[in-house]
Amino acid sequence: MWHRIVITVHSGQGGVLYRRLWGGTVVDRVYGEGIHIIFPFNTMYIYNCRVQQVPHHFSVLTSNGLTVDIDISIRYYPEYDLLGVLHQKLGPDYVNTVVIPEIESVFRKIVGKRDAEGLYTTEKAFIETSLNQAVARLARKFIIIDDVIIKRIKLPDAVDKTIQYKLEQKHLADTYKYILQKEQEEIKRKQLEAIGLKELSKALDANVLQWMAIQATLELSKSSNSKIIVIGATKSGLPILGSIPFDNEVEIIKDPQIERIEDMATNNMSSLTKTINAQSLESNDKND
Q1: Does residue 244 have a pLDDT over 50?
Q2: Domain 52-155, what fold?
Q3: Which of 61-70, 95-104, 232-241 has the lowest mean pLDDT?
Q4: SS3 for the chain, per residue?
Q5: Residue ranges covered by each domain of the chain
């Protein structure tokens, strides 16, 4: 008798009182957490108001008659302030009475309008729109749907392998298209590079090459590292850099500035040669 008089509502719960003699279900009050004392001929129904999850498995027929197995998980909770109305209209087993059938009905409509392959490419927005409609209908029944999770969609094995093979071939074809486009771009790049090299070869005449040789000689003379210089036998007297033919067969522009630089480089080379020879003679005398 004591447990019918003293009722404890635990954390995360809400109580709905049913008065046997005075009006039935109390819909304008929810009994919160704590201890409540009621008459023994009344009944307190306790509801879990936390977010709950219920798994569900069902089979659906596609538009072409194939059976598809679907596993989903529904997260939900009752609207706290309307627990009395929920109890009066639906009762404690509202999950199996309303929630699961409503969500399952949505999926049956989605899958029933598509063939087996369409389930792999169904737009997410379409599914969300359909689920939102179901959520809105459940909200009018005082139930809040937090989320609907699709865990698994299982097609017949033969159909599943066929669809996967078709999708793999499609992606492979897209890969080949990408490779072809890449190779075409590489061809264009090489053509532009060839044009650039052709124009550069036209611009590199003998005068430009001699100027580059003079600059290289000046930079070489500034270096503090030990070096071996091979004096060229051409008219310019520049060191041998590669196989540039600075001889009498090439017409050279007689620019005064270039001649001064050329003379300076020739004098520097002569002084360097004399110094090296003197050091060699002195070393030989000491050895004698």
Answers
A1: no
A2: Tetrahydropterin Synthase; Chain A (3.30.479)
A3: 232-241
A4: CHHHHEEEECCCEEEEEEECCCCEECCCCCECCEEEECCCCCEEEEEECCCEEEEEEEEEECCCCCEEEEEEEEEEEECHHHHHHHHHHCCCCHHHHHHHHHHHHHHHHHHHCCCCHHHCCCCHHHHHHHHHHHHHHHHCCCEEEEEEEEEEEECCHHHHHHHHHHHHHHHHHHHHHHHHHHHHHHHHHHHHHHHHHHHHHHHCCHHHHHHHHHHHHHHHHHCCCCCCCCECCCCCCCECCCCCCCCCCCCCCCCHHHHHHHHHHHHHHHHHHHHHHHHHHHHHHHHC
A5: 2-48, 52-155, 157-203, 206-287
